[in-house]
Design goal:
The complex is a heterodimer of chains A (about 70) and B (about 425). Chain A is mainly α. Chain A has 2 helices and no strands. The radius of gyration of chain A is 16 Å and the shape is elongated. Classes of the chains: A mainly alpha (about 70), B alpha+beta (about 425).
């Protein structure tokens, strides 16, 4: 049972990451569309923010591993 | 070789390997009784290794069958640290430095455990009541087991439930007809990679330590030679290794150090640069297949030390403003200050903690996914009984694994960069000049 709950918890964490990174991606796309010459800056900031959000989600996933 | 030939060769190889797995599954361990009543092990030419271990047989080679194949166990075994350095199937012994309360300090080369050079790192002998099981050292808790180098009859893995209700696999040593329980090494996290504080501590030069030493020496020589090149080619355009490192170095300096630290960038540059390149090199080193698969940054101990160093540097260079902002934030009403102080104080410790966990989780998750993708071949081929499935699985698994390893390369760079930039921002907050 703990194994299944752990897996469900990991899945929930990934939903959060998906929503967060999806938001960043969409805002980045809009920003590039508005100002195409800033694509380099926007892209590097987007990847950095995605890595930070991904970090939080992966911490939750690793805790799920430990738990179940 | 073009890609088509490479592909065909790979399919042939996988077919050959899958074919070689096709043994009959009758356990003929029962033959070969000698004088003792205990079932002795029979040296199969089977694939030994990481079976799910529900056997009750004392053997060194646990046969892998479709019933007891456990991809999770294989994954955990491959990302964990080991006391042998394995280059592909070749196992090289490493020095073991062990301390236990009743045995004292022990220092010896792990070849004393008498494991096969092309095997799975399971030692056929026990030395001073230590054994080696699948590359990891364990201690026999029973004091009646003889000291010195003793030849043992086999190992048995049993699933037990700890008092916290968790399922754990415990190794038993079979010797002279009786079984002796063994302890895993003490670990920081307990659970998955160990068991909390057990009867011994392992200070050996393990796979991770060897990898760190190799990477440190490599980086030292690379950067020394680049520095010398700058001296002798003063004013000329950079060439070779110099030309490769210069953009990366300048990128970190201009994007990370200068925006956050301003004029103090030169003071912290050695630290941040070492941190970035060390983490990057370790991440990339853990990606190289067959070279030991030394998952260094994917171990909590290493990332913990890096986070502690970042914590020390940040807080030891904290100015009065920094501490005031934490404990008695100026510019907010008093009741807000009482809420803010505990939160900020916890933040002092939680920020390095997240640094540690972020790096560990990213690298470990990537490695686990790659190992699971490769295990797909075994799952689809039903551990050697289904060749067609194995080949199909090999095709799909190769594509998935290549994709995943490409992502892991990206993650290696990104995580090193994120660690460096966050540490720099914390240091920047600590050394910030008085504004108001």
């Amino acid at each position: 049972m703990t194994g299944t709950l752990a897996a469900i918890g990991a899945g929930l964490a990934v939903i959060g990451a998906g929503i967060g990174i999806g938001n960043i991606g969409s805002k980045a796309m809009e920003a590039i569309a508005r100002q195409p010459e800033a694509v380099g800056d926007i892209r590097s900031n987007m990847i950095l923010m995605a890595a930070l959000i991904e970090g939080a989600a992966l911490i939750a996933i690793i805790l799920a591993f430990f738990a179940g | 070789m073009d890609i088509k030939r490479l592909f065909t060769l790979f399919l042939l190889l996988s077919a050959l390997i899958a074919n070689g797995q096709n043994h009959d599954h009758d356990h003929d361990d029962h033959s070969g009784h000698d004088h003792d009543a205990e079932l002795t092990e029979q040296e199969h030419h089977n694939e030994g290794g990481f079976a799910g271990g529900h056997h009750d047989i004392c053997t060194f080679h646990h046969e892998v069958t479709p019933e007891n194949f456990s991809a999770q166990q294989i994954a955990f075994h491959h990302i964990a640290d080991a006391n042998v350095y394995s280059i592909g199937p070749l196992q090289l012994p490493l020095p073991a430095i062990l301390w236990s309360k009743d045995g004292g300090l022990d220092f010896f080369l792990s070849s004393k455990f008498d494991f096969e050079t092309m095997g799975h790192g399971t030692g056929h002998s026990a030395h001073n009541r230590y054994i080696m099981d699948g590359g990891a050292i364990r201690r026999i808790t029973d004091p009646s087991f003889p000291e010195g180098t003793v030849k043992i009859d086999g190992l048995k893995h049993k699933h037990e439930t700890t008092d916290k209700g968790k399922d754990k696999e415990v190794t038993y040593v079979c010797y002279n007809g009786s079984e002796y329980r063994t302890d895993a090494e003490s670990t920081l996290d307990g659970g998955m990679f160990g068991g909390g504080i057990t009867s011994f501590h392992d200070f050996s030069i393990t796979k991770n330590v060897t990898a760190m030493i190799i990477v440190t020496l490599l980086m030292f020589f690379v950067f020394r030679s680049i520095a010398n090149k700058y001296k002798e080619r003063d004013g000329k355009a950079p060439k070779g290794m110099q030309g490769f490192m210069e953009p990366i170095f300048l990128f970190i300096r201009d994007e990370v150090l200068v925006p956050f630290l301003g004029d103090k960038a030169d003071r912290y540059m050695p630290f941040i640069m070492s941190l970035f390149f060390f983490i990057l090199a370790l991440n990339l080193f853990g990606q190289i297949p067959f070279l030991g698969g030394a998952n260094v940054t994917g171990s909590l101990s290493v990332t913990l030390v890096l986070a502690v160093i970042a914590f020390l540097v940040t807080n030891l260079s904290g100015k009065k403003d920094y501490w005031q902002h934490i404990f008695w934030m100026p510019g907010v009403p008093a009741w807000v200050k009482t809420i803010l102080t505990p939160v900020e104080f916890m933040g002092v410790f939680i920020k390095p903690l997240t640094l540690m966990l972020r790096l560990f989780a990213n690298i470990t998750a990537g490695h686990i996914v790659v190992i699971i993708f490769v295990s797909l071949i075994f799952i689809f081929g039903n551990v050697g009984t289904n060749i067609g499935g194995a080949i199909g699985g090999a095709v799909g698994s190769t594509i998935l694994t290549m994709f995943m390893m490409a992502i892991e390369l990206l993650v290696a760079f990104i995580q090193a960069f994120v660690f460096a930039i966050l540490t720099t921002s914390y240091i920047g907050a600590a050394v910030e000049e008085h504004h108001h």
